[in-house]
Design brief:
The chain has 106 residues and is an all-alpha fold. The chain is 63% helix and 0% strand. The protein contains five helices and no strands. It is globular.
């Protein structure tokens, strides 16, 4: 994820969303360990962002819809003690998730 120390909150969220779209286009929908690791690293990076509250629930919801095999494999690979475990338990309407993501890009 790119550094955005001088950007405002909206610009940081826009950068996060652009990074997400780039990542989701590049990752195949499979259960290969390398692919799972890339997704997990991306999600862990989101949780480390301190400048803004990233749209994590929306991102995970869109991953679940766009890459169901990858989502399921990543969910299975995360231990119950991982900080990502809770994120994979949350469910949201994909249409609402996309609407919220689009609002940040305006």
């Amino acid at each position: 994820m790119k550094s955005a120390n001088t950007d405002g909150p909206l610009q940081v969220k826009q950068l996060i969303i652009r990074d997400f779209h780039d990542m989701i286009e590049q990752l195949p929908d499979n259960d290969q360990p390398a692919t799972i690791q890339k997704l997990v690293r991306f999600l862990q990076g989101l949780l480390r962002i301190k400048q803004v509250v990233p749209p994590v629930v929306e991102i995970v919801t869109l991953i679940k819809q766009a890459k169901p095999t990858l989502y399921h494999a990543a969910r299975q690979s995360v231990t119950t003690t991982s900080n990502l475990h809770l994120i994979f338990q949350i469910d949201m309407d994909p249409v609402l998730a996309q609407e919220r993501m689009n609002e940040f890009l305006k």
